[in-house]
Amino acid sequence: LGKKLGIYSVAVSALVVFTGWFLGKEISEMFFTGVSLAVAVVPEGLPAVVTITLALGIRAMVKEKALLRHLQAAETLGAATVICTDKTGTLTQNQMTVKKIWLPSGTIEVTGSGYDPAGHFEENGKRVDYKSREDLLMLLRCALQCNRAKVQKGETGWEALGNPTEASLIVAAYKAWLHQEKSETAVSEFSFSSVRKRMSVVYREKDGLRAYIKGAPEVILQRSTKIFKNGVSCTLSEDDKKTAQNAYTDLARSGLRVLGFAYRPLLKDMAIDEESVEKELVFLGFAGIIDPPRPEVADAIRMAKSAGIKIFMITGDSPDTALAIAKSVSLECDRAITSLELSQKNDEELKALLGTKVLFARVEPEDKLRIVKILQQMDEVVGMTGDGVNDAPALKQADIGISMGIRGTDVAKSASDMILTDDNFASIIKAIKEGRRQYDNIKKFVRYLLSSNTGEIIAIFVNILLGGPLIPLPVQILWMNLVTDGVTAAALGTEPAEQGLMKRPPRSVDEPILDKNGVIIIALLGSYIAAVTVLLFHYYLPQNQESGMALAQTVAFTGIIILEKANVLNFRSFSAPITNARFFSNRWILLAILVTVGLQACAVY
């Protein structure tokens, strides 16, 4: 817009200078007139007003738990058409609690919630004596040892240090009065990654070396050759695998996050590397962990839908768990696509998939990047959430990269445009609403400033054609553009969001800030302001030939400012007239009108 205004200012100035010279005016006089017109065309206060508005908008977004790292991100956020969101901690509360433990001998319920280790174990509604259940103790010991989190009691109660999922496993083990072994007994550790989908720790125990492994159920089952039943290790049969797989599916479909557990006794002369250690495992069972959905997410998703914004869940959890959580937060999904399925589809097939109601489960970081690129090829404005180092490429590629403020890594934060200080999906939708409000307000004060400037241009041009002097003078134009109009436009930038703001579709990224209707409104209002200004000037001009010129210029100068202050009220709403109740909703604009009229009185008197 600034570039266009620069071109227009030169063109209009040249036209007027040539016209005046053609009508017999002095070229030096017309040169100064041309400079005045160039000043009038360009709203000098626009850069400051835009910057102030975006800065105030960022402050408003911080109150909604969204921190923007770039001023321009607010404008892009308001145009977002797709949000790709993680599940854990974003759609859910990230407060993990182990609720069910599946063992080959049956399913055990775990009571209690949160990180407080108060609770016990039940089977078929009856309390279980965990001391007599070697299979239960073995799984809990595995969960406790293959773990790097901690749980401690602070001033405000029990709290987790580290990964919430691992913390929930420690709490479950504490309910059986198990305690973590000293870290000096750990020989080696192979960390979890989104590619490996498992973690293992090797310990030196009384009877030799032993590896404890946890990870995605399908990975643990695939690497197991034995099963721990009735207190002994025996061969894992196909029937055992089928029973375990059905149990895993049932747990996942009930909305639980499921982890598989196994162990392996190691020989003394055995190589301690991940491929050697993590095979021929003894399967122990599953832990079903509940991560309740955030209560406000369902309403946020419904608001996003009404605003024409599509939501795609992208998670590392199992498809069944992801579908269950999607249903609980009112996210419409017909099927889940895994990373393996995704890798087998070409770009055209993926584009067709993204046009349906799907979510993505068991994804790799590179899958996120591919999904973002394909959506952008479909002309979507994409917001992508992420918290890990591996999410950085997708966050950088997205139009709006959204990182997590609580659990996000520094790498993810530095690659993002926006940081959620509460890791809450609902904050994204609030930020989009705020972004739309800011863009609306920018359009409002741009139209207001240009309609006022158009009035100044036409008044100058018409008066030259009528053979009159320059009205207003260059210094008066600068006073209007920088002081009186600038203050009022900044106040217009604080206008509250209009009703129905989140019930209209996202604007096109190619939509100009000045469309056809905007140009017509600017021309009509500018013409009206110019007509009244010229009439005022000529009405007062003949009263006194000596002082008449100064009086007429002063009246016209003051008249145009009063007209512009009334004109600002035309731009408070695009959709509906301002009601009596809404009139006082933005007290800054009323204060700005009073202040600028007062400043004008000071300038005159």
Terminal Cα span? 37 Å
Largest sheet report = 11 strands, mixed
Task: Please identify the oligomeric state.
Answer: single chain
Low-confidence stretches: none
User: Structural class of the helix and strand makeup?
Assistant: alpha/beta
Percent of residues in helices: 40-55%
The rough form would be described as: elongated
Annotation field: number of helices: 22
Question: What's the Cα radius of gyration?
Answer: 34 Å
Record field, number of beta strands: 21
Query: Mean of the pLDDT scores?
Result: 89
Our estimate of the beta-strand percent is 15-25%
Walk me through this protein's architecture.
The chain is an alpha/beta fold. The strands form four sheets. Strands 3, 4, 5, 6, 9, 10, 11, 12, 13, 14 and 15 form an eleven-stranded mixed beta sheet that branches. The protein has a six-stranded mixed beta sheet with strand order 1-21-20-19-2-16, with helices on both faces. The chain has a two-stranded antiparallel sheet with strand order 7-8. β5 (121-123) and β6 (126-127) form a beta hairpin.
